[in-house]
Amino acid sequence: MFGLDKKDSTLLLIVAVLTMFAPFILNPFPEGSAMAQFNAGYPDLMQRFVIFGIFAIGFNILFGLTGYLSFGHAAFLGVGSYAAVWMFKLLSMNIIPAIILAVVVSGLFALLIGFISLRRSGIYFSILTLAFAQMMFALAYSVLTPITNGETGLQLSLNDPRIFGQSATADGSIPVTSLFGLEMRHTVQWDLGAWLFQFNVGYYFCAIIMLIAFFISIRIFRSPFGLMLRAVKSNQQRVNYTGLNARPYTLAAFVISGMYAGLAGGLLASMDPLAGAERMQWTASGEVVLMTILGGAGTLIGPVLGAGFIKYFENIFSKINDNVLHGWFSFLPDGLEDAIVFLLHPFIGKGWHLTLGILFMLVVIFLPGGLVEGGQRIAKLFRKDKAKNTAKSTTEPAE
Amino acid sequence: MDAIFLQILNGLDKGSAYALIALGLTLIFGTLGVVNFAHGAIFMLGSFCAVTLNKLLTLSFEVVDATQTDFLGNPLKVKTPYVQAWFGDDFGAALIDWSVPLAILFAIPVMIGIGFIMERGLIKHFYKRPHADQILVTFGLAIVLQELIKYFFGANPIPTPAPDAFKGSFDFGAMLGRDAGTIIYPYWRLVYFGFAAVIIGAVFAFLQFTTFGMVVRAGMADRETVGLLGINIDKRFTIMFGIAAAVAGLAGVMYGPINSPNYHMGMDFLVLSFVVVVVGGMGSLPGAVLAGFLLGILESFASMTQVIDLIPGINQIIIYVVAIIILLTRPRGLMGRKGVMED
Prior knowledge:
Strand content of chain A: 5-15%
Shape of chain B: globular
Radius of gyration of chain B: 22 Å
Oligomer: heterodimer
CATH topology of the domain at 6-281 in chain A: ABC transporter involved in vitamin B12 uptake, BtuC
Strand order of the largest sheet of chain B: 1-2
CATH architecture of the domain at 6-281 in chain A: Orthogonal Bundle
């Protein structure tokens, strides 16, 4: 199918089915039941799943294939967001031109930064990308305030020209983002017994874009170009000695992954038209690294899994508070219950970042291959036939 | 001329902090070959050593004093710190006043201990792993340490004042025979610079003039050969990790009065310190110190109004710009050693 072999087609089909039926799959518990807080099937969160999935897929094309660890990838996401919001301000509320501009602008930035950074490899490359990202973050916060609106973040206003659209709707409010009139925030709700399912236009738009992005990433992985990138990862020196110049290939990978990040940024702005400098901070870059590692760098499905995993638990952990914990452990004797709640308290609610940091360390220490490797290990336990053991790729920096 | 002199002075204190953190980073990199992203967090922990000591010293009990009343007419509650009750008013108050310098004594064992635990417990297992893994695991550790501090001390900066004796400013203008008040500089920043100079001198002297230091330098040059000579180089490197942690911790302790400690100060300094290490040259101790002061002074020059008028925003990005130029023109950094982290 579409030039993919059987295994990859199956993978793409599974992902397609999962994303298309996500409103059902992510809402397994009836509305109003005690378990309803574990539901994730509402538009805002589902949009974040697929958008950060795109971001992580793009990052994986660089890190997973070439081994170059960029610590400044969030900068491209931020640039994409700014570009998209400017399109909404100047042109119209249609998301197509906004997303196209976001991808183009972030691609140009990636070309410039990649051209300079890729002269060095290993840790130097990480620090160069980090320096560029911090530089862009600092500029967005201070000097470029006319373009970025500084700390407040770039927002739409009633005075924007919007030459192909309208500055304000008939009732005097800011128009919403749409795809040729189809509003992104439009949600169809379906009550089915105790269950409530929500189908959001914005989510489905993002999901289709993600499937396309995923498909392109599979094609890149299986192409001669992808093979070349893997060669760079496993031994760049040997590639050079064979008479091949690795830099055009790595630069192409860098630009592609920067464009993916810009696409994710443009989509974020399309779903919620504002852009802030904090999206470019290096902790945001760290997060996408974490998503990719957690899922499994260098694997196809890993980054999507990692992004979904992190965004889901970020949401759940932030919602849990002491009362919920008391509810769960109420079957225990009082003293024990209080002790457990006290122990868990730092990790929930606002403590999500602490949990994330610990998770990060545990994954890097015990499961460098991420969730995919974990899955493979478990599968191997159940499978007697070890001949099928597929070769998995490991993460090594280019040196 | 005055302005130039003032900017050099201004650059010194930030430069001192950069130099101290970068020195520790380079020590760890040069000895253990580990890229430690948690070093900024160690700096922050040091700062919070001072905060903790201050809190401990000001632990108070309350006495209701019937003779005094507050503005509502209720009897006034008088807080007396325990140390004042135990050691007498004057000495107790002096202890509290000098809590930041005293925290140095408190921080050295604590930071060395933290360094040991970090190295033995975590970093040891990452020698053979790729640099990317080292970066990632220490990055995770930095997040954890930062969030723990945030959980215990809150998100707001905690003021840690310098002793009264060092409040106020020194008038360089009067000393140099210029108009009084043109070049004034806070005493504490002078203290910080002097302190940094002493620490840097001590580390270099330790490495240069002791047998232990000689072995460590030999190990940095060729670890394998030193190991073959029957010297337990791992043990010495662990101790160096503890020392590096102590250096960063002390930099943090003394930085408290300049900038109130908050939980993310480590991250803010870390990125810059890494840039400093790279500019100085990976694994080169003098390079780290030189680059630290150089970048600190450059940054303060870029903050001058005349410069900002010329190139807006240059003060925010000057360090990164310099780093990018240096990395592209002198890939090994200013004083990098040959063969360390080369492609």
